[in-house]
Amino acid sequence: MIDPVSALSNVLGAKGWLSGSDVGPYRWDWLRRYGAVPLGVARPANTQEVARVVEICREAGVAVVPQGGNTGLCGGAVAHEAGAVILSLSRMAAMEKPDLASGSIVVEAGVVLAALHEALEPHGLIFPMHLGAEGSARIGGLIGTNAGGSHALRYGMMQDLVLGLEVVLADGTVWNGLRSVQKDNAGYQLRKLFCGSEGTLGIVTRAVLKLFPAPKQRTTALLTFADCGAAVSFGTYLRGEAGEFLSGLEFFSDFGLKLVLKHLADISFPLETRGGVHLLAELASSSARVPLDDILTAALEWGMEQELVIDGALAMSDAQRAHFWHLREEQPEGQRLEGQQLKHDISVPPGKIAEFVEAGEAACSKILPGVRINPFGHLGDGNIHYNLTPPEGQSDFADKALELGQALAALATEMGGSFAAEHGLGRSKVVLADTNRSPVERNLMAVVKDALDPSGLMNPGVLISPIRQKKNFPIDEIS
User: Fold this and answer.
1) Is 21 exposed, middle or buried (0-12, 13-18, 19+ CB in 10 A)?
2) Please, are residues 223 and 314 in contact by the beta-carbon 8 Å criterion?
3) Would you tell me how many other CB atoms lie within 10 Å of the CB of residue 124?
4) Residue 214 and residue 288: Cα distance in Å, rounded?
5) How do beta strands 345-347 and 277-285 pair?
6) What is the percent of the chain with per-residue pLDDT over 70, rounded to a whole number?
7) Contact yes or no for 267/327 (Cβ under 8 A)
8) Cα separation of 402 and 429, whole Å?
9) Could you tell me the mean pLDDT of each successive run of 10 residues in the chain, 479 residues long?
10) Which one, of 318, 131, 297, 322, lies nearest residue 223 by Cα?
11) What confidence score (pLDDT) does residue 471 get?
12) How far apart are CA 308 and CA 295, in angstroms?
């Protein structure tokens, strides 16, 4: 049998193959919950080297775990068992010049999202994906997890922003689907199959991304409401008034605001009145002729007349707009600095957000009385980051973490939503998927996995448990 260490070292060289203490920065996931010692870290410099790494690992029977910026929250980009090869895309960070006429750009999977934003700025174009980890998150990882972010309301998820892909498959062959067209119905939509697959079906090496004109103007408001129901009602009205100009509709609780103000000294709250829920609304247009200020001001006045909006302000400068956004973006950091936390990535139909928040609080409080709840996220698309902090004076969750997560997942499922809105399943949510999705759906995924990765070496244990894959059962079999 081939010696994988010797073969990979010969193919990749000193810069491309790391072992021993050098694997440390790649071993653990962001939350440090997962991370077995890998055989080594492969850092290929091009698609051909990626393909060769996959071929060698397949021949040697070694698992391959692709890793981008390693900012995921579900443990999907690190090894679960010792002896796997972590395949880092960090050296593949090239970008072609944007195609201005087509509104697209070809990039390698290792491109950092913030670097893409910076490169597009001189061309008057944007790639409309924004999230807290954009300074380290890489394009391949965003595709692998089908990332959402704060502008999904207007522009969609990552699968909606990918026109074409290049993928190294489990046998080392390369599928070149780098087509820069929006309309391509020549069979199955294969590019979308790999969006959200978390490296279990193949490794994305290059992508054609959809671009948009940069906004020439924005108007942003920070608003306060008594509760989530009032915020949802206002959001519904604003969607009807602002339509295609509504680019952001973000909410956070007053408890979350309290933690931010407590732990981050450089942040202040600019409104006179506090309420149970705060909303960040933003309109944007690539035309300077659209009266965005008038639209948002009229909506704000309507909200006050209906006694929905308690207080609010429009940003009068770019600095004030940035401050408004900072309040929302620092919600995870404020909670992290408070101590232990449980993160839950939930989605429900937008009209049921208030119902979920209320029912979730009742369920969590029954399991762990006094648990402190911090719901925040994307009001426009129904994505709630339903994060928990232990009761006041308590340092942990008293072994109730699993029960809390299961209760929230079941509640989201009952409401026609999802327990994995934009972070993916990774390793941490495979059991939740088996519990909350039908056997037909889970078995169908296993059949697809088995067809494209019969050896089960592509990121094993992520999305589909290895045991489920090896059964190779018909999709209508009840497990």
Assistant:
1) exposed
2) no
3) 13
4) 11
5) unpaired
6) 97
7) yes
8) 11
9) 90 94 89 88 98 97 95 88 95 97 97 98 96 92 94 94 98 97 93 96 98 97 97 97 96 97 94 97 97 97 97 96 95 94 94 96 97 96 96 94 96 96 90 92 94 95 77 47
10) 297
11) 56
12) 17
Q: Which residue has the tokens 């997962």?
A: 34
Residue keyed to tokens 């924005």: 218
Give the whole-angstrom CA distance, residue 30 versus residue 130.
19
* Residue 240: burial class (beta carbons within 10 Å; 0-12, 13-18, 19+): exposed
Instruction: Copy the structure tokens of residue 45.
Output: 């410099």
- Residue labelled with tokens 């009068």: 316
Neighbour tally for 263: CB within 10 Å: 15
Distances, alpha carbon 328 to alpha carbons 157, 222, 248, 321, 353, in Å? 20, 10, 11, 11, 18
